[in-house]
User: Fold this.
Amino acid sequence: NPLATAHQLATLDRLSAGRLTVGLGTGYLFSEFGALGADPAQRRDALDENVTLMRQAWAGETITHRNAQFNARGNKVLPPVVQEPHPPLWIHGNSRFGVERAARYGDGWIGMMTHDNHVIARTTRTAPLRDLDSLARRIDTVRASAQAHGRDPDSLEIAVAGAWPMLDIRTRRPADAYLEEIAQLEKLGVDWALSLGCGDDPVIAQETVAQFGEEVVAHSSHPSR
Assistant:
């Protein structure tokens, strides 16, 4: 529900003092669609509709909107967001749909490296992104599409997920390897590298993040990122 989601995200934006970035995608786990009573066949149209409604809600508008899922009759979302006009929206997706939506109304694009693992691409229902050459071409496509929509292509943040294995201090990976790959990604125009951290042990997870910050983040060319 876009109004419930807009409320939750506005609350997070306020609790984090305006540090929230929102990643959006159409989803791929159809079992979850069933559990939530959502039709996966409508997920692309629903994304467009919901983003429009969330933006209206964050702008302080009173929402009157009816569709097959809900009937809003003069609802207003509170609290107001801290970031104006709203938290950055990064659109996830390697496919033409994801690229076009990011270029048309996103503040950023999230690409996901699939390397040669066809299972990942099939499972997540996305187009393969196997190597850095493929990534470079997709970034060019995103920026060209943004320009075609009358937007400044350089205003889009470019983020990449799946470039690294899960961060885990127990399977230590040399910091130099990360720094070398960060330099390669930066040359392609990537602004952010996203990675998962281990979550099975809170203490190990905390130590992993601390070590990564000390050995990698602090020595990258953009330590704030």
The first strand starts at residue 22 and ends at 24. The chain is about 45% helix and 15% strand.
